[in-house]
Every structure is written in structure tokens, then in C-alpha cells.
Design goal:
Shape: globular
Number of strands: 8
Number of domains: 2
Radius of gyration: 20 Å
Structural class: alpha+beta
Oligomer: single chain
Low-confidence stretches: 1-19
Mean pLDDT: 90
Number of helices: 6
CATH architecture of the largest domain: 2-Layer Sandwich
Strand content: 25-35%
Strand order of the largest sheet: 1-3-2-8-5-7-6-4
Largest sheet: 8 strands, antiparallel, barrel
CATH class of the largest domain: Alpha Beta
Helix content: 25-40%
Length: 253
Amino acid sequence: MKQLLLGLFMLVAFSANSQQTNLTVVNTVKVKKGQRMAFEAAYKLHIAKFHTGKEKNSVFQIINGRLAGAYHLVNSGRSFSDLDNERGDASAHNLDLDKNFFPYLEETTNGYYNLIDSLSFRPEMVAEKFVVTVRHMKQGMQGDWRQEQARAMKILAKMKGKFWEHLSLSTFAMLWDGSDQVNVTIRNLVDGFASLESGFYGPPGNGGNPSFKEEYIKEYGTLDWDKRTKILDEAEASSEQYIMRLRKDLSSQ
């Protein structure tokens, strides 16, 4: 069930601030076959009626992979104190879900995530297309992996070239995930899916500028580069990757 949530997220979660409103609630739903158009029509009405204030939702649709066609319904900018408060129109909201939402669904589940600033790189950049990488970490490897990712973010800040200037990464941790520790990294494609094409940002070679490996070794040394390579190879128990897009037409306006 937890794996259905793995597409978190996203740029809407960048409202994290000093009030610690950095929680993101993700509901992942799979629609029954033949019910997609009916579901979308019903959900548009639900959003217009119940999700225009603090409870605004953003909707993302998964394009490929195991969850192709599923939707991530994302409510971000939340705090732990919000979990103590029930919305004032809870009864009407839940009744509408029971009548006009759940009947179209094959499966639904939800989870909580928070944005990790130290493992993200220019997450404020706006995008509507995304590459999502979900990592299930081996026991005892979470700390080493995060340390290396934090180092990588510092090196990225030194990189020069069009590709690096347009790079935006957001890393989230799944909360209350038990022994199966999950990290999700989202590449925010500010130039759309076209930017995934080889040569989109120019010919290979980084335009004569130092490569990521060269900058890393310059900062930390060759031995640490070798250690980094080993950690990244060994830290993951499993992973998956997919692309998704923002559905503005289904999101709160």
C-alpha cells in the first residue's frame, strides 16, 4: 500500500516556512477502468466546492511505469498542529467523497512527507513536468546516503553550464514509514519533457567547465569520491522511477 504513495509531492510543498508548514499529504488514487472521464468530472466539482481555501489541492498524473494513469492528490503547506484540527465542513466533505469520489476508484491510499531543504537544489523553480525517483533504503544506510546527498547539493551550487543552471531537485522523506525508509527525489523539469532529450542544453562535455566528479574531488578528494560511489551503489534496497505532469484543470484554482 505504501508504494502507491510514492509519487509525492511536489513543487507545491515549497511553501515550507518558519511556522514549520512543511508537511505534504499525498493521496494516490487508481481509477476503475472505464471511469476516468466520470472521475475527473466529479473531482472538478468536488475541488470547486471544498478545496478553495487552506485545503487547496494540486493534482499530478503519473504517465508511465507501475502506477501509470494514477493520480497524486497533494495538499501541502501543512503543519503537525493541523492534524489536531478537523475541517469545519468535514461531514459535508466526507459525504461528497463517499457519493462522488470513492465509487470511481479501484484503490486509494495516503501518506505524509516533508521536504528536506539540505537535500534539495533550487526547489523553488516552477515546473509542470517531473521525473520522480523513489528510493527504499537498506537498514543502516540512510545516514550515509543523506550525508552524500547533502555534499552533492553543495557541489551542484558550483557547477556551471546551461544544464546545471536549469536543474531543480526536491527531496522528500516519507514520515512514519517504519523499517522501510523511503526517500523521494523529484527533478522539476522547468523546460518540460523536451529537456530530457540528448543535447537539449547543448553538446556533451559541460562546455569545457569542470564536471561534477572533478568539482567533487577538488572539494573532498579522490578517496571520498570512491567512498561516495560505494555508498550510492549499496544504500538502496530498491528503487523506481517515473514521469508525471501537473493537472492544472483538476487542481484548486
